[in-house]
């Protein structure tokens, strides 16, 4: 799910950057496209942070399970 979200945000960021370049070339305001670009970039960073936090929770759970097994001599808790 996050992979699809990440790809979608990258596509939005590229489209906004393209729109900003076109608006500069055609001498119109690039402000709306720039705002969309920075919002998409911020959302992309947020998705990366959420994935990192999820991976940390998974790793902590694995450490808790394997640590308990190691204390019992390799047997399940």
Topology, element by element:
Layout: H1 2-25, H2 31-71
Helix pairs in contact: 1-2
Q: What pattern of helices and strands is seen along the backbone?
A: HH
What integer value in Å does the Rg equal? Answer: 22 Å
Percent of residues in helices? over 70%
Residue stretches low in confidence (pLDDT < 50, at least 5 long) are none
The biggest sheet amounts to:
none
Number of domains: 1
Number of helices: 2
Transmembrane segments: 29-47
Keywords: Membrane, Transmembrane, Transmembrane helix
Offer a quick outline of the entry.
This protein is mostly helical and 77 residues long. The chain has two helices and no strands.
Structure overview:
There is one protein chain. The protein has one domain. It is mainly alpha-helical and about 80 residues long. It is rod-shaped and about 70 Å long. The chain contains 2 helices and no strands.
